[in-house]
Inverse folding.
């Protein structure tokens, strides 16, 4: 009986040790971080492919990218989503906001209109100068259900 008790305690302690090593191991955390980073990079690649738009003259390319976050609350950060513009091998962030950014369109070779949801029945837009990064905000639509 005493031998079974020691065996049970031994298995219990070994199990606790194994769980502790697994959960608190730097390799586990590093692997988790690497996997999260890999998924983030995949999603941003798909976002880039989906959102890429050329300027009217074809010399500039704009697309969205999201910053890496490790919690859901961070998608509300004012720098979560970025609109990037590439020209002559240079990439610049021209506008940033939270997860509510939606589509955008080139108006001219130097201006982009970005749309943002602002709640039920509301749509904002920002006209951004890609050279100066100055922008003008306006209410695009207020939907009335009646």
């Amino acid at each position: 009986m005493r031998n079974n008790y020691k065996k049970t305690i031994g298995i219990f302690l070994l199990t606790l040790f194994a769980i502790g090593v697994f959960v608190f191991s730097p390799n586990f955390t590093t692997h988790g971080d690497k996997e999260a980073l890999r998924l983030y990079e995949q999603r941003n690649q798909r976002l880039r492919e989906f959102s890429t738009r050329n300027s009217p003259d074809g010399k500039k390319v704009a697309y969205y990218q999201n910053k890496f976050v490790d919690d859901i609350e961070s998608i509300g950060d004012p720098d979560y989503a970025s609109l990037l513009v590439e020209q002559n091998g240079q990439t610049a962030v021209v506008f940033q906001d939270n997860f509510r950014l939606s589509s955008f369109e080139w108006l001219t070779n130097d201006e982009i209109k970005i749309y943002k949801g602002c709640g039920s029945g509301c749509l904002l837009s920002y006209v951004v100068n890609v050279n100066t990064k100055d922008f003008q905000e306006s209410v695009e639509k207020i939907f009335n259900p009646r």
Summary: The beta strands are 53-54, 61-66, 81-87, 90-97, 101-106, 111-117, 122-129, 135-142. Helices lie at 2-24, 26-51. The CA atoms of residues 55 and 90 lie 15 Å apart.
